[in-house]
Specification:
heterodimer; A: about 120 residues; mainly beta; six-stranded mixed sheet; five-stranded antiparallel sheet; about 55% strand; globular; B: about 110 residues; four-stranded antiparallel sheet; 11 strands; about 0% helix
């Protein structure tokens, strides 16, 4: 069974602080996605990374795909209360491609940003 | 473009009953995937339908089933409900399906008593 581990599980910080959450696997990804889920809603896609070493920025969010494509990180600069939510990574592994491939979701990092 | 819609949003059922959940994907998307989300297990893949055919299935018992109609709308059925089936059931649509980018609906919160 291929596992996607996220850390930390929970994070509570104050507005203005910076943070990084991690997504790790022992297998190589062909692509990886990050989602944010707010209470009572479904996950919303933030970004997709496909190339080892790739860095993508979305306003105050910076996503990095590891060189070996086994891990990824999400860095938030100057966190705001609106960043509160569950952050999920989801990957497709190299050996799991084609039309029958499916996403496997990580365990999630629950972030709370307070004033 | 309208997003993914799921009905109903909330449902309370009794053990042993059955339930049907509905999902309407984004217009033009032919793939619909279903997920179960619980605090303990996280987001677990149930199955995916593409052009009315089940293309992939997760590790859930046969009590969980689904189907997709010619207009891409999908339904998920759970028979003989158990307390452990209480969860948020999420539907996601995708243009190409598989592990391509998923667009989720708001979910149906099912409580089994």
């Amino acid at each position: 069974t291929q596992l996607l581990e996220q850390s930390p599980q929970f994070l509570s910080i104050q507005e203005g602080e910076n943070l990084t959450v991690y997504c790790n696997s022992s297998s190589v990804f062909s692509s990886l996605q990050w989602y944010r889920q707010e209470p009572g809603e479904g996950p919303v896609l933030l970004v997709t990374v496909v190339t080892g070493g790739e860095v993508k920025k979305l306003k105050r969010l910076t996503f990095q795909f590891g060189d070996a494509r086994k891990d990824s990180s999400l860095h938030i600069t100057a966190a705001q209360p609106g960043d509160t939510g569950l952050y999920l990574c989801a990957g497709r592994w190299m050996e799991n491609t084609g039309t029958a491939s499916k996403l496997t979701f990580g365990t999630g990092t629950r972030l709370q940003v307070t004033l | 473009k309208a997003g993914v819609t799921q009905t109903p949003r909330y449902l309370i059922k009794t053990r042993g009953q059955q339930v049907t959940l509905s999902c309407s994907p984004i217009s033009g998307h032919r793939s619909v995937s279903w997920y179960q989300q619980t605090p303990g297990q996280g987001l677990q893949f149930l199955f995916e339908y593409f052009s009315e055919t089940q293309r992939n299935k997760g590790n859930f018992p046969g009590r969980f089933s689904g189907r997709q109609f010619s207009n891409s709308r999908s339904e998920m059925n759970v028979s003989t409900l158990e307390l452990g089936d209480s969860a948020l059931y999420l539907c996601a649509s995708s243009l190409f399906g598989g592990a391509w980018e998923q667009y989720f609906g708001p979910g149906t919160r099912l409580t089994v008593t």
